[in-house]
Design a protein that fits this description.
Layout: H1 5-10, E1 19-24, H2 36-50, E2 52-57, H3 63-71, E3 79-81, H4 88-97, E4 100-103, H5 107-114, E5 118-123, H6 129-132, E6 140-144, H7 162-165, H8 168-181, E7 196-203, E8 209-213, H9 221-237, H10 245-258, H11 264-300, H12 306-329, H13 334-345, H14 352-385
Parallel strand pairs: 1-2, 1-4, 2-3, 4-5, 5-6
Antiparallel strand pairs: 6-7, 7-8
Length: about 400
């Protein structure tokens, strides 16, 4: 039920102020939170220098965090604590009124994105920007640019230094500039040595969601792998046999503009080891295909040998365990194994022959995706290395270029 306008306005701080900015100071896990002092410092800067009003959102359990933020500010009359005081409909309407939302990793952020509010998002602990960013263009993301960020899931950190890398002055600078120009500009105090990553959300040439780094740092293998997965899954889900040359070129153009690709030789060398892992996965998938074939042949006869069928089933279980271990020990390749596992989870029924047929399709898909992924990576390395004078990729002689 829509609240009437006067009721909603009564929840907001004083009428004076040129810009209304929402804060989401709480989050599901304490380690993912920017400090109350940082929120308070940012609030004072925005109120005193940008004539802003601040409203703090959250569930009832986050009201204490909101009160702590307010207690640390110097401009209490320009801040309202609405944590636990709104239902979902009221929250959506209030977020729509906000010009900006500064938020930790929360559901409030996704609702604000749906309402068209500009977001400045903070990523700490094991909150991962590539997994839970606001999936719409024109938002800004801050993340600590340190080697341990983001943490692995399940890891408890006793020294969460990442929250101190992103400073209130950083956020004030980008918001102040955006108020004036309606564009995101990297603060002058942030550079490659600042240990801060800043991204703007957007879509690429083929409408794939991506994060554009505002700090231009050296292309790492994970950056290339992540981008290659975008092409792989786009090809898989649109049932293309390969990522075409247009997609490869577009991806590499983006990477060369957004990253320093001068060390592509080092990435090329690292990828050689990953190709061997892909080959190991494919070998096991081929073995799984053959076992499924034996089960199909054995179960289609009049007198199926139940003992042999059991042995084939046990062999498949052992193979799948080996695939899982390969995925766990090689996180960059794990998405391929995870996709295989998800497909197998959807195979069900009591007919052994039909089960084997569907399982064989899962192994075939894994083989094809390993080969597609290898081709995409090789093509990207070749394309990016062309930008480096005098460098010849290790794989450039034998590379298979889709669409050529």
């Amino acid at each position: 039920r829509q609240q009437n306008q006067s009721t909603l306005d009564s929840l907001l701080p004083g009428k004076t102020g040129d810009v209304l900015i929402g804060f989401q100071a709480g989050s599901s896990l304490e380690g993912r939170r920017w400090s109350a002092q940082s929120f308070a410092n940012l609030a004072d800067m925005l109120i005193e220098k940008s004539n802003a009003r601040i409203v703090i959102f959250g569930v009832a359990s986050e009201s204490k965090v909101a009160e702590e933020v307010i207690s640390l500010t110097k401009n209490i009359d320009q801040i309202s604590n609405l944590a636990g005081k709104t239902n979902l409909s009221e929250l959506a309407q209030l977020l729509e009124k906000c010009d900006y939302l500064v938020t930790n990793d929360t559901g409030t952020m996704h609702l604000a994105a749906a309402m068209g509010t500009k977001i400045v998002r903070l990523f700490f602990a094991h909150a991962h920007p590539y997994e839970t960013a606001p999936f719409s263009p024109g938002h800004l993301i801050f993340q600590a640019g340190i080697s341990c960020a983001p943490c692995s899931y399940g890891v408890h950190c006793n020294n969460i230094v990442c929250v101190d890398k992103v400073r209130p002055q950083h956020l004030f600078s980008v918001i102040e500039n955006h108020i004036k120009t309606q564009s995101w500009v990297l603060p002058e105090m942030i550079d490659q040595d600042s240990e801060v990553n800043v991204f703007e959300t957007g879509f690429d040439f083929d409408m794939n969601f991506r994060l554009r780094p505002l700090v231009r740092y050296e292309l790492a293998m994970n950056d290339l792998l992540r981008s290659a997965y975008t092409l792989l899954w786009r090809s898989v889900f649109t049932e293309k046999k390969d990522a075409d040359r247009y997609m490869i070129n577009g991806l590499c153009d983006n990477l060369s503009q957004e990253y320093d690709c001068s060390e592509i030789e080092t990435i090329d060398e690292q990828l050689e080891k990953k190709y061997l892992i892909l080959e190991d996965i494919s070998k096991r998938a081929h073995a799984g295909q053959k076992l499924c074939g034996k089960i199909i042949n054995g179960s289609s006869g009049r007198k199926g040998n139940s003992h042999k069928m059991g042995q084939f089933g046990e062999a498949i279980t052992a193979l799948d365990m080996e695939l899982e271990v390969l995925g766990l020990s090689n996180p960059e390749i794990k998405p391929l194994v995870d996709m295989f596992s998800k497909r197998k989870e959807n195979v069900g029924g009591d007919n052994i022959c039909l089960l084997a047929i569907e399982t064989r399709k899962c192994y075939l898909a894994l083989i094809n995706e390993c080969e597609m992924f290898r081709k995409i990576l090789k093509s990207c390395v070749e394309q990016l290395s062309d930008l480096q004078p005098g460098y010849i990729s290790h794989s450039s002689i034998n590379v298979v270029v889709p669409g050529r």
